[in-house]
């Protein structure tokens, strides 16, 4: 750890994204001219389109986003995933989509991405452990994918499953959770435009430790709902089991919406510490639905959120 | 077999116990320095909190190992036990201070946490029970209390250290193995002290 290169620039000192995007276009255009106008010049990034759903808050540093992870398949320490996730092979990745859909089947990543427009979604990310980040995800709305497979009228929930590969995932040797990791959403939550399938961060392909090649991001729920490295999506009629709920149902509910008023039994959820803020960072108040109430509060009209935590 | 320890024991006799205090302060100074420099990763507060708590627990476990090491391996470390125990107390006090000042920050929330969160309640109880032990870890207090009362008071260690490990078991998410290793080691070290024959004898001796 000692002697690791340390960036002492603050975010405000970094070239604004619009400026380097312009520069990149200039370079691309120049390269295009040099190549005789041949299309398909190699691009450094994913060129995700900006989105109206992005927050204007400053994103957490790339270093923090990619070295401070909870991905227990690669170990329970925050730095374990960054150290171990290189073992995961993402080439030839397939996602099985089944259950109450019109077109069940196995999709390659090319199939999944065909015809989608990648957007940059800069979202607040709030972990159930009371830390938070702001992450510039790249992805597309889950609703796009669900509409393509055709959701049958009887479907009420979406279940997700993470890859389980003991030879590539040293963390699954311990029974800290019941593997494979599973998560779920109610169908209306899954269809909400804020809910995305992310394939990148910082305009780059998703690092393995962040859930490559494809993961869920549900910004108004605690981070563990945003399941990583998905291999299966199943539409169901009944509420699917979810990993942390199975491990400790009193502490982790199916909904797990960010809610400053409902404590975790072992700690308060009223405030959070922003990761990357340094030694003397002040805690800040946690917002209801992580600040996304305008978009999602109506999903829970009439529900007692202390009961359905 | 025990005489194999003789050269080690005689070498150890020449090491002054006070040396442990400055040595024990070094990792703490390094930890804060690394935190300020940004070498502890992106969440230095949690890292400092965790390492202080873990090292404190190691030191307290070490104090429990000293009697069994002497009894079963002939290694005489009892001269260092006070320094190791006090260092353990200082580490746990620093762990608590970092939690109060750098982590939770909000006084109203601190009281709520201590009363409502069992793992914090247990950690606080263990810390409070350590205070009389730290205050009496000097020759003056030992003389004032007298050996028998002092020893009885310091048996609180047998409660404090397992409570510390339980605090660690409860603070982590899910059932992780590392805290259980420490809890098992502590229970093992305590079990080595149980000598049924001796207990019966001392009980009957007390009756006569």
Automatic annotation (TrEMBL), chain A:
Cofactor notes: Binds 1 Mo-molybdopterin (Mo-MPT) cofactor per subunit.
PTM annotation, UniProt: Predicted to be exported by the Tat system. The position of the signal peptide cleavage has not been experimentally proven.
What's its top-level EC category? Answer: oxidoreductase
Q: Name one GO biological process term.
A: protein repair
Cofactor dependence is on:
Mo-molybdopterin
Gene3D superfamilies assigned: Oxidoreductase, molybdopterin-binding domain
Q: Which reaction does it catalyse?
A: L-methionyl-[protein] + a quinone + H2O = L-methionyl-(R)-S-oxide-[protein] + a quinol; L-methionyl-[protein] + a quinone + H2O = L-methionyl-(S)-S-oxide-[protein] + a quinol
Annotated residues that bind Mo-molybdopterin are located at: 69, 72-73, 127, 162, 210, 215, 226-228
Pfam families registered for this protein in UniProt: Oxidored_molyb
Listed GO molecular functions? metal ion binding; molybdopterin cofactor binding; oxidoreductase activity, acting on a sulfur group of donors, quinone or similar compound as acceptor
InterPro entries tied to this protein: MsrP, OxRdtase_Mopterin-bd_dom, OxRdtase_Mopterin-bd_sf, TAT_signal
Q: Where in this chain does the record put each Oxidoreductase molybdopterin-binding domain? A: 89-244
Q: How does it assemble?
A: Heterodimer of a catalytic subunit (MsrP) and a heme-binding subunit (MsrQ).
Q: Which family does it belong to?
A: Belongs to the MsrP family.
Q: What function is annotated for this protein? A: Part of the MsrPQ system that repairs oxidized periplasmic proteins containing methionine sulfoxide residues (Met-O), using respiratory chain electrons. Thus protects these proteins from oxidative-stress damage caused by reactive species of oxygen and chlorine generated by the host defense mechanisms. MsrPQ is essential for the maintenance of envelope integrity under bleach stress, rescuing a wide series of structurally unrelated periplasmic proteins from methionine oxidation.
| Name used for this protein in its record | Protein-methionine-sulfoxide reductase catalytic subunit MsrP
Q: Which organism is it from?
A: Tropicimonas sediminicola
TrEMBL record, chain B:
- Annotated signal sequence is none
GO BP field? protein repair
Q: Which GO terms describe its cellular component?
A: plasma membrane
Ferric oxidoreductase domain: residues covered: 52-164
Transmembrane regions listed in the UniProt entry: 18-36, 48-66, 87-106, 118-135, 156-173, 179-194
The record's keywords, sorted A to Z, are: Cell membrane, Electron transport, Flavoprotein, FMN, Heme, Iron, Membrane, Metal-binding, Transmembrane, Transmembrane helix, Transport
Binding partners and assembly: Heterodimer of a catalytic subunit (MsrP) and a heme-binding subunit (MsrQ).
Output this protein's name.
Protein-methionine-sulfoxide reductase heme-binding subunit MsrQ
Q: Which organism is it from?
A: Tropicimonas sediminicola
